[in-house]
Amino acid sequence: TRFDMVVSAFSLIDLPDRRSRLEAVLNLWRKTDKYLVLVELGTNAGFK
Fold first, then answer.
1. Is the Cβ–Cβ distance between 31 and 6 less than 8 Å?
2. pTM of the predicted protein model
3. Rounded Cα gap, residues 31 and 41, in angstroms
4. GO CC terms for this protein (predicted)?
């Protein structure tokens, strides 16, 4: 099943490593036909 919009909120940071996060995002991307919305907490370091 594919969806117009897929949302992931405040969950990627809980995954153990970068590879796990990439796999999760790719899985989410495969489930959408239009939009993928990722919501995560930001940091000052990430902003710069």
1. yes
2. 0.80
3. 23
4. mitochondrial small ribosomal subunit
Q: How far is CA 42 from the centre of its chain?
A: 13
Residue 44: φ, ψ to 5°: -60, -40
- Spell out a b/e string for 8-44, using b for 16 or more CB atoms within 10 Å of the CB, else e: eeeebeeeeeeeebeeeeeebeeeeeeeeeeeeeeee
Mapping DSSP to helix (H, G, I), strand (E, B) and coil, where does residue 18 land? Answer: helix
Residue-wise pLDDT tens digits, 19-41: 999 999 999 999 999 999 999 98
